[in-house]
Amino acid sequence: MKLTFIGADHEVTGSCHYLEACGKHILVDYGMEQGVNTYENAPLPVQEGMIDYVLLTHAHVDHSGMLPQLHARGFRGQVFMTDASADLCSIMLRDCAHIQMQEAEWKNRKAKRHAGMDAAEPVYTMEDAEGIIKRIVPCHYDTVIELCEGIRIRFTDIGHLLGSSSIEVWMEEEGQQRKIVFSGDIGNTDQPLIKDPQKTEEADYVVIESTYGDRLHSAERPDYAAELAEILNETFAKGGNVVIPSFAVGRTQEMLYFLRKIKAERLVKNFPDFPVYVDSPLAVEATGIFHKNIYTCFDEEAMALVKSGVNPLQFPGLHLAITSDESKAINFDDTPKVILSASGMCDAGRIRHHLKHNLWRPECTVLFVGYQSVGTLGRSIVDGAEEVKLFGEMITVRAQVRKLTGMSGHADKNGLLDWIGGFRQKPKRVFVVHGEDSVCDSFRDCLTNEYGYRAYAPYSGTRFDLLTDQIEYEAAPVAIRKKQKKASDVFSRLLAAGQRLLSVIQKNEGGANKDLAKFADQVNSLCDKWDRD
Fold first, then answer.
1. If you average pLDDT over each of 102-116, 188-202, 479-493, which comes out highest?
2. 479 occurs within a structural domain
3. Is residue 484 in a domain?
4. 266 part of a folded domain
5. How far apart are CA 530 and CA 502, in angstroms?
6. Cis, bond preceding 218 (omega within 30 deg of 0)
7. Torsion sign across C-alpha atoms 292, 347, 105, 76
8. What is the per-residue pLDDT across 324-382, written as a single tens digit (0 to 9) for each?
9. Domain enclosing residue 512, as ranges
């Protein structure tokens, strides 16, 4: 039984852990890296075609976004996740593929105008997204599932996003038993719509996130509806728009919840009928999935509204922009309005068009309601950039830039400590991941020095033996200095296909001679067709 740390180690995005047990190869999350990455990630210890299972904590792209590439490179196992996560991944992974293909198309149009630029290939395609979606196995919360002989799993609501979970993994090998718990992203308490994080009582080992492991949210929970209403009043009085870069899944639905309350209580007195535009097809689809999962995922406050006949995510003046023409029309309407658009960090999607039309206007407000990774456009604006580049044009930042402080789907330091304190006995070890470099170290030291845990913050590539309770290989931080020219994505895909063929051949050892001979003839025929010698 061995655990290897691959992604989101001393970094916040690109979550991935590799677990080897009972002869099986298992990934826990396979996320996309976003923003600036300080350290180089280790490669997977085995070829993608050798992976048997993926366990997904939740649908956010930094945990799920590379699953289609896994399929493109030969993975044909099963992907286990909660029911709501399965619903969300079915739309989010298609959206990711669409973005990858759009970006490759844009780069290729640019390449035609500049001699010497290589043609770009998408990281993965819509076909890859569809392929991985077909391999998803939806699971109920709080249900023990036998993954295979010797391995059982269970998903527990962790209160971070609709369908988010911590994952318990029980393993039995050679008469020895171990249990490891992956926290996933631990949710903040008292969030709108979804339930608070649930705790787990027993574990030998725990892998815990540390996004906000060095800070505390406000002791007194802010009145977000009142704060938002004040911003709306001020901006509308000047004749401006309130542009909100918002993650399509999770944060957009929370903002709709607050906006419904503002309208119902008439908190924007001089502009009670202000329009609200949700300009993100993904956000519109995700909102429908929130409705579908009301009875399994909504908290008591949201359920009380539902039982009284109130839809917590709908209200008069709400407009859903699906087509590109509907999106463009928003900026040709002079009525002061709220524009909710993705992506939440402003690095892609329709939000960039709305920033181009509104950032230079002093009467407008750009309101940030979520975490902005280092290196993203959103982070640049929050940090006070005087101008930013959008679609090849420098745009001066004259709009008011505001933040709803403390609004986070992540637990703060006390929330993390409260969750890990729920175990009846201290785990043998606690592995600290999913935090910026200094935060991982700070939270590890807190757990060790103040609470008596055996805590460790691994770098990517570190391998731990769960049977001997020993670090088998301790990786050092490998800084990213200069991007090396890589083989094209298409050739990488071909190499991965060859690796998968080799793994399939190995799995057929011991088969009937007649079948093996037929297989060998088919492989040789393929080689004859493509051999360039």
1. 188-202
2. no
3. no
4. yes
5. 17
6. no
7. negative
8. 999 999 999 999 999 999 989 998 889 999 999 999 999 999 999 987 877 889 999 99
9. 489-530
